[in-house]
Amino acid sequence: MFVILRAIYRLTLHPLAKFPGPFWARITSIYGMSYDLTNDRGTNPKWIESANLGEGPIIRTHPHVLHVRDLDSYNQIFRAMTPFDKHRDQYQAKFTEGFFNIGSSKVVKPYKDVYQPYFSKSSITRMEPLIHETLNTFLGKLDSASKEDGKVVDLTFGFRCLTSDTIMRYCFADEGFQTLESKEFRSPLIVKLEQFFDTIMPIIYFPKTMTWLTNQLGKLSDATQDKVAPGLAATNYIMDECKKKITTILENGGSQSTFPTIFDSWADQSKRKTEWIPSIYQLTCDAFTMFAAGTDTTAHTLTIGTWYLMKNPTMLAKLRNELRTAIPNPDSNSLKPAWELEKLPYLNGIVKESIRLGYGVPGRLARKVPAGGAIFHDQRAPAGYAICSTAYSIHMNESYFANAPEFQPERWLGDDKLELDKKLVSFSRGTRSCLGMNMAYAEMYLTFAYLFSRFDLKPTRTVAEDIEGWKDCFLPRVRKHLEVTISPATD
Description:
Keywords: Heme, Iron, Metal-binding, Monooxygenase, Oxidoreductase. By secondary structure, the protein is an alpha+beta fold. It has two domains: 1-77 and 362-425, no CATH class; 91-345 and 431-488, CATH 1.10.630.10. It has helices at 2-12, 23-27, 29-37, 44-48, 71-77, 105-115, 121-126, 128-146, 155-172, 188-197, 200-205, 207-217, 222-228, 230-251, 280-311, 313-326, 338-341, 345-358, 391-395, 417-421, 437-454, 464-468; strands at 58-62, 65-68, 85-86, 152-154, 367-368, 374-376, 379-381, 386-388, 455-459, 471-473, 475-477, 483-488. A five-stranded mixed sheet has the order 1-2-8-5-3. Helix 15 (280-311) packs parallel to helix 21 (437-454) and helix 16 (313-326) crosses helix 18 (345-358). The protein is globular, with a radius of gyration of 23 Å.
């Protein structure tokens, strides 16, 4: 009886009852959850944009959640010093209890501002030799594979190893987790990280249960953790290793590196404006956030761009024609700086289109409607409820990107490219925008330029649905890895 009465209330008297949405979505979260927690029903971002949700720019996707589908509304929510705080229901994971989980933009700003200078474009330019060194290691592995006839390379793992080693070396001024040294890019840590992302949606829906489970696993031996729940075991391992590295930096007054690294900011009070310092646990969570986001989002974007270039010989020929002049000696270990490569129009289009269809975080980023409510399309969203928007909604909107599902680098070559930039939300917007945007751009310009200057790639055992049919695990995850054979470039 209670269930029936609750359903009637949610359909008729609930503060969100006036907003349209699927019948079952307005009654129970199980409907939306079924898309997030199963592999056979698609993904929530795609479901939200599907025909069964009907018309309208603002819809109800869960009993207590609204979703807006247009750019103006997105910019209203995700702006500098926004009053729309992060909604706690989506941000309770144990391993993100640093700056990432702080709800208020006002509260998080001085915390995040300590890190911000280390991710500025000028800072990334200064540390670019580190990116070059890591990329050369990656390219060397591919060169070795190209000499083995028929050798199949898992580029999904390869890109993750590349981005993992880059972000970790920058965080700690050491060799990171050395995932690129793993045979065939199958670093046990990277493999477990993929398994970890399978737990993200359960964590969002059942945060207390999953936190309890993670804590219980921490009491077991490493071997037992690996057998019972390798993804969560990887979380505990990464957190432990990051804690050790951060503790050493703080105790030594810095990393003593020749270039400033991210956690040096907390080791020397003269380098920051705040008098307070987060706890070791908070800093460890920050490191985990940087590792996970800095590894997977950029690697996924590289996977997407590589897939579409391999599928389209005309695009690849245009890119290589542009790169021949810019990189006359692609086999040299002395790499061009990213700021030079980003001036190449077609390469820029490849990068931007990869970012657009890579989405960053494709799905719901829940925010709390502030006191007094908020107006969207002449409708008042009541205070306290969650309101979301998604990069997928914006990037698949035909009024913003014509032929939106198509990978079209040429769209970024027109006179309206600056306007298109304003519609690209893969890195979010405002105070809570992605810290690592400049690093990601540098990695992508360099990797695409040198990967396709040096090698011919052919997909094997990989079809369109494997890559284009990604699954939302907070970050996008391909259904099957991109596997290729490699040979030296012939044109």
